[in-house]
Amino acid sequence: MIKLHVNPIVLEQLRQAFPTPEGSAERQLNKYVATLEMFLNRAISWKDGHHAVFKWYSISTHRLSQQGGSIGSEPQIRIHKWLKNNNLSLIKSYIPGDAMTGTVSKVLLTDLVQIDDLVQSVIATPESLDELVNRFMTMSPEVFIKAHLMDFYDDLSNGRNIGMLYDSFPVDSKSLERFISWIPNATEFSYAKKYHHLTNALIIKIASGLCEGEFYQKKKLSIFGRTYYAGVSVQNIHKTLRKAVLGKCVEYDIESSVMAFKMGYAAECYATLPQKYKALTFDETFKCTISLIRDKQRVREEIRQEVFDDDFPLSLDKKMDCVKTALTAIGFGAKARLHGWYVSDSDLQRPAINEIFKDTDCRRRFVESSFVKDLMKEQAMLDKVIYANTIATNRHLLTQPEFLNSKGKPIKNKILSFAYQTGETKVMDEFRRLALDWNNVVIANVHDAVFFKHKLSSSRKSYIQESIRLDFNNPYWTFDEKEMTGFLLSNAEKAKIEQDEIDDWKMQDERLLAQHRSGTLPTFFGERVEDVNEVVIPAESHPSQSYRQETSAPPSFAIP
Fold this sequence. Notes:
50% of the residues lie in helices and 14% in strands. By secondary structure, it is α+β, with helices and mostly antiparallel strands.
């Protein structure tokens, strides 16, 4: 988060040039600076890390000029242009933008601007986190709001339905603060990555602090079937930061979701094979796809050993990530080609595998792997059936330009992506619906994963899984369960937190029982309290109620 301090000489010369109306120079310069701050703060959310390493920012100077205001009587002149004409520019182009390609400029700040960077301050002195955040928000809350909460603030101010437009999740502030104190000295991230992850962490910390501990994410519905969110969200932050913000909870995700989805069409695919191809059994025909569902760790490890030499300069985790990403890409239609191909005289189309395996020898070994070759054949058979089914049941796709090439022909991979993402969404919607029957409401969603505050019993999880398999006629839908502890710095800290929780529960139980026996038991949030054999259950936590109740009241938004 950035706050700018402009050399007083800029305002002084602007006043001299435009002395009337009184105060107009100050107002218009403040507007321009605020607009520039907004652009810079949005730029630091990008993943390129240029600002952290090279001190340049990717912004549209054209939009800055348009939105930065004007001054003077007719004809008015834009502040941006006046500053440039008078050698008082606050920015200078390092790499100009290109309207033809849609790229924006990369700009540097001039010597007329001093920068107050909250992220850099926290990296330098993480122990002063609260003091630094409070000083920044006291000095310029509008800078943060305009850059990161403007849509939410506008929607709230105009009485729009926040529940329809947004999803929110409760932020574990203590877990998040432990992450913030840890990342400045983390060795696994470059400085640019640290800056990016810490920026996201501070956005979530400050925004949730303004909204009673909840972080709001504006929904973006994709034509492909998924729900995304605008700006920073639980979906696009690093997995370690996600673990920190969600705290103690339970994650349920689909095992090998794209392969499981495709196997839902395997029976139809096998039934339509010519008789000469049926010398193999069903399981033999789809052995590679099935193994990626049932035994994916073994498969990935075998391919890693086949692709990478022991002395290849990547960590074991990075090697496994490459293999995992490449196999997933094949599931989404990537071609296992060794080289790219030209779609025109100058446009080289690179297969996704090229981007995953940068080393030519590693890429060759992956492409020539017997498992990968067999997997590609299986995927081609399944894709053919899925494509035909999707086109037959979704004729509207043939008229939507997003799914067509320049000649008006359907783009196969986009049709397949629509089929998969729509199928995935339906399955996860059903998982959430069934879980709600047992008072388990989702606190966060990440495509093929959901996060609950409480763990499902093994029998309930099995019931949900079997119900989904039956409802969708696909015995390959399988759900993995991971218990998350929040962000912990050490095993000793983990043990201390667990013991503190046990002690807190004991104290609460003892206090409630004492109040019950003395007849002074309070109500919770003004609601009735049920007494069941001396175990006190607030009515809003009763199993017949939703874990997080819906409310028509708008969320609180406290601006310092």
